[in-house]
Design the sequence.
């Protein structure tokens, strides 16, 4: 097999600005998502993820401009999520230059929205983002609104239902681990990866490069997403990939 | 030189346009005009034609057929006048005889064969194939001039569940390994198509687009 495991930095964007600061050297404007995107592009990231956390509807227009300016300069795949609620939202993001959109709350509220989106734009550009919390041994529940609202929906059942409706990829975030730097929830990641036929992106909890190895090797994820370890310069994309390669995980180094 | 990129409501057009502009600059073709258009006349009169495509096969075909005169413009410019043509992703798949995604849809019939669901021999491999893969060159082609292929070569970015099962082996220029050989690049005379996204494939992609801009089939 020669398809490579992907390393995906994720930027939280609010009103057109990066929220959790990015501390790259040589970055002209650390708050500008486009500058950050360019830096990650040059650093060899396999894909980039923007999560728009803008609260007001007025500010939501800014993400389209951010995506458009990024796509003009970065020739790498771009996934955009946050507040994707209608087919028109998806269409605007794709036209601006996004390759994939990630759907979260709207998929929980109306699972058929995922089916409509996949029919219209193709399965391959519909990512469903699952925010999961463990509620019992080997049991996880779907949460929305940044982990505040419980839904009562079993995460594994939901993952399967989303793929049946046409999700081409699942972004699996452990809300228990997110920001904790103690590693991905491997049991969760593997349970979902082994249950569904589409690729899985592991998210939430990366603190060391070993965690990224574990996400792929033990969690069976096809891609690993991280935010702060890259933004704050703890590790570079290249260090992450070299480390994964040293542990036998095929990665792209060109 | 004017390159028409056909705008038929299929996403990702900005990336394709910007990547061509950069490829033109990098190959010293500053005079090249990259023309994103839905106008059949502008396509017919262009020097080179690019058909991008993201989405479902039938949806893309319907979008293209919805542009007045576009199918005729392609027949004239690509089939009769033999102008260089590049299809990307579903744009490449439309070159086939038929697409079998969700329903049976007629393609252009330029590359004989059907677009079929991928079925990797290794059951642990996920479909869609999403990510970076290397290419195995089946035979040399001018669009791959100067591009390192093979296991240690450059990577191309793929996002697809279906691939073109070409009937004529000679039409297949490159494959990628995903639980078996997957058609990655096809070409027949002046018509070429990439299953992967050159506009998202950084180094390999920009080199391939540059080669297309100077290609004399």
Sequence:
């Amino acid at each position: 097999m020669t398809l490579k495991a992907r390393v995906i930095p994720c930027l939280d964007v609010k009103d057109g600005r990066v929220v959790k600061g990015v501390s790259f050297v040589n970055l002209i404007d650390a708050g500008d998502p486009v500058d950050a995107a360019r830096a990650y592009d040059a650093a060899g990231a396999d894909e980039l993820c923007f999560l728009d956390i803008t609260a007001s509807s007025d500010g939501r227009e800014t993400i389209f401009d951010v995506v458009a300016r990024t796509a003009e300069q970065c020739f790498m795949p771009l996934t955009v999520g946050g507040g994707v609620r209608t087919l028109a939202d998806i269409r605007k993001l794709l036209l601006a230059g996004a390759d994939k959109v990630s759907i979260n709350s709207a998929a929980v509220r109306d699972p058929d929205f995922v089916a409509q989106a996949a029919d219209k734009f193709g399965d391959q550009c519909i990512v469903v983002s699952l925010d999961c919390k463990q509620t019992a041994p080997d049991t996880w529940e779907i949460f929305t609104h940044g982990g505040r609202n419980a839904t009562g929906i079993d995460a594994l059942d939901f993952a399967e239902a989303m793929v049946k409706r046409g999700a081409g990829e699942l972004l699996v975030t452990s809300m228990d681990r997110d920001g904790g730097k103690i590693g991905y929830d491997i049991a969760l990641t593997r349970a979902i990866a082994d249950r569904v036929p589409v690729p899985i992106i592991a998210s939430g909890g990366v603190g060391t490069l070993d965690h990224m190895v574990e996400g792929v090797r033990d969690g069976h994820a096809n891609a690993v997403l991280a935010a702060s370890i890259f933004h704050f310069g703890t590790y570079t994309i290249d260090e992450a990939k070299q480390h994964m390669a040293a542990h036998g995980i095929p990665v792209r180094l060109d | 030189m004017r390159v028409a990129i056909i705008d038929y409501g299929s996403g990702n057009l900005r990336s394709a346009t910007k990547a061509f502009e950069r490829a033109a600059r990098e190959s010293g073709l500053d005079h090249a005009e990259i023309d994103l258009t839905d106008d059949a006349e502008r396509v017919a009169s262009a020097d080179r034609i690019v058909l991008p495509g993201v989405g479902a096969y039938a949806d893309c075909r319907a979008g293209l057929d919805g542009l007045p005169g576009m199918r005729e413009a392609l027949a004239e410019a690509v089939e009769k006048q033999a102008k260089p043509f590049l299809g990307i992703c579903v744009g490449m798949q439309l070159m086939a005889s038929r697409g079998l995604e969700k329903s049976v849809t007629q393609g252009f019939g330029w590359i004989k064969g059907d677009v079929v669901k991928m079925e990797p021999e290794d059951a642990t491999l996920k479909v869609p194939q999403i990510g970076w893969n290397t290419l195995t060159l089946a035979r040399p082609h001018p669009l791959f001039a100067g591009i390192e292929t093979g296991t240690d070569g450059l990577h191309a970015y793929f996002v697809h569940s279906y691939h073109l099962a070409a009937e004529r082996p000679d039409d297949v220029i490159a494959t990628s390994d995903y639980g078996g050989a997957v058609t990655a690049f096809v070409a027949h005379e002046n018509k070429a198509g990439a299953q992967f996204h050159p506009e998202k494939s950084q180094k390999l992609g920009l080199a391939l687009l540059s080669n297309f801009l100077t290609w004399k089939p």
Summary: Chain B has one domain: 2-214. The CA atoms of residues 53 and 90 of chain B lie 5 Å apart. The longest strand of chain B covers residues 181-188. The radius of gyration of chain B is 16 Å.
